[in-house]
Design goal:
With 101 residues, the protein is mainly beta. Helices cover 10% and strands 37% of the residues. The protein is globular.
């Protein structure tokens, strides 16, 4: 694809969850955040691997079957954050839409 075609395709998928493939063979999934004449910026999800406090613990905590420490103070849960990753349009091979649930 030419650079103008790739820019148009990125603008069509603005704020959508996509996978970007580069000519070097790298694949990155994220949300299209910004597009200009030379580059595209993706918001790549990272972190946020929190566990639910209702998770299964196979052993009792401190000798009592019902007492266990909270994994994170209620009602505040750690939120996922996004890192910005910038690709030059000339390096992109393709852009595909992904389902986001």
């Amino acid at each position: 694809m030419e650079q103008t075609e790739m820019k148009q395709r990125c603008q069509e998928h603005m704020h959508r969850y996509v996978v970007a493939r580069t000519k070097e063979g790298w694949c990155t999934d994220g949300f299209v955040e910004y597009v200009d004449d030379e580059c595209v910026a993706l918001a790549v999800p990272c972190g946020g691997g929190w566990e639910d406090s209702r998770g299964f613990f196979p052993y009792p905590y401190f000798g009592t079957p019902f007492a266990r420490p909270p994994l994170y103070p209620y009602p505040y849960y750690p939120r996922r954050y996004f890192a910005r990753q910038v690709f030059p349009l000339a390096a992109l091979l393709g852009l595909s839409l992904l389902p986001f649930y």
